[in-house]
Amino acid sequence: MDRPAWAPEGVDMQQASPARMYDALLGGSHNFEIDRKAAEMGKSLVPDLPRLALSNRAFLRRAVRFLADSGIRQFLDIGSGIPTAGNVHEVVHAIDPDIRVLYADIDPVAVAHSRAILRGNSRAGAVEADLRKPAELLDKAAETGLIDFDQPVGLLLVAVLHLLADSDEPVAKVADLRAAVQPGSYVAISHLTSEMRPEDAGKLGANASDKNRIGIHFRNREGIVAMFEGWDLIEPGVVELPVWRPESERDLHEAPGRSLGLAGVGRKA
Ligand code: SAM
After folding, report:
1. What pLDDT shows up at residue 212?
2. Which intervals of the chain are annotated as region Disordered (predicted)?
């Protein structure tokens, strides 16, 4: 298969990536055959996976609007993924075109495509960075000039922390980020959970018996609530994706009681 123009040199086209597999689930076009196969395999095990992806995107948009309405004027979106409908900069610039947005992702395809769509936009940018190395990530963010760590920041950790293994210490990584931001900052987190549908989580999770190349770490409620340690939880707390401040019927992509994701927003006092 020829390398498409959007795929940077050095990207292994034989290895599925979470960013491209998620893009495939959302019906995007920045994915390889191996990603589409991984997405199809996931759907054969859990047919409503695309609804989960839509439910997660809907949470992201609601949380971002909530943060912008709460006065946040700069967003650091970590594990931002391949741009798709309703990106953070589009949502916030509809509220205030001066809001700054920095996308950070470990996946070169996600970063390259983000840069391509942001060309000429002085209020938004993208960096390649690893959440497992928060100090480096924060340095890169500061170097862009888009994020001023002397002012409150909206940190977005949406559908990314479940890609970190326990050995990557995800709770400690969130704590490192919290330590670096000013009071008045917020964090929005969504995370795959084994809480409501343990059987389906078992089929898709990193410990599934078939070789899972993506490595998704479903966690229980307690494990996800622990990530908000030190943040004041905003109402309604850590809840299923579709019931975090739904705005309309259209937000109910997944039936409450059946979601594979938990989500919440916290504020640093
Ligand atoms: N946040 C977007 C959303 O919720 O729609 C995209 C979520 S996508 C499922 C997860 C993203 O996290 C992927 O783009 C992947 O490349 C990125 N990612 C995985 N591990 C990461 C890490 N250690 N540091 C930064 N990004 C990472």
Report:
1. 47
2. 250-269
